[in-house]
Amino acid sequence: MYGRKVKLRILFLIVLLSSIILTIFLVLKSLEENVVYFLSPTEVKNLNELTQDKIRIGGMVKKDSININSDKINFIITDFNNEINVVYSGLIPNLFQESKGVVAEGFLKDKNYFNAEKILAKHDENYMPPNIKEQIGEK
Q: Residue 88 and residue 99: Cα distance in Å, rounded?
């Protein structure tokens, strides 16, 4: 019914579409495994059961909550509805400040206490490093 040329074109289109679909599926699947979301303190309080997995908690550093000891830093992450106490020992990012955004990665001890292994400070799109600000004369 169809000639050899038409059958080869149809086969080529089927193979091409199948490979495109497979490629898209594999890319999305790998992104799903590597994307890590963070929970707010309210979402942590609403968890049905505590997880032993590493999670991220994000929010704002509560004003006047940072307490630096010799090897640890204690602070409170808030989403203005709920709060969670965080303990961290390690290097603190330069952008880490009170009333600024932060994401802490680590393990929950209970719904009020979080042991962080990594701190990621967040900034808005208008952020400029202090040394660059000084160079261009802004304050």
A: 18
Beta strands in 69-136 (DSSP E): 73-78, 83-88, 101-110, 113-121
In three-state secondary structure terms, 130 is: helix
Domain covering 41-121 in this structure, CATH number: 2.40.50.140
Cα 88 to Cα 9, 37, 59, 72, 128, distances in angstroms: 61, 20, 16, 6, 26
Q: For tokens 């898209």, what's the residue?
A: 24
Bridge partners of 2? none
Q: Where are the domains of the chain?
A: 1-35, 41-121
Structure tokens at 53: 């997995």
pLDDT in tens, the chain (139 residues): 788 999 999 999 999 999 999 999 999 888 876 666 788 898 888 888 877 888 899 889 999 999 988 889 999 999 889 999 999 998 888 888 888 889 999 999 888 999 999 998 866 656 656 665 665 665 5
The rounded distance, in Å, linking the Cα atoms of 99 and 63 is 6
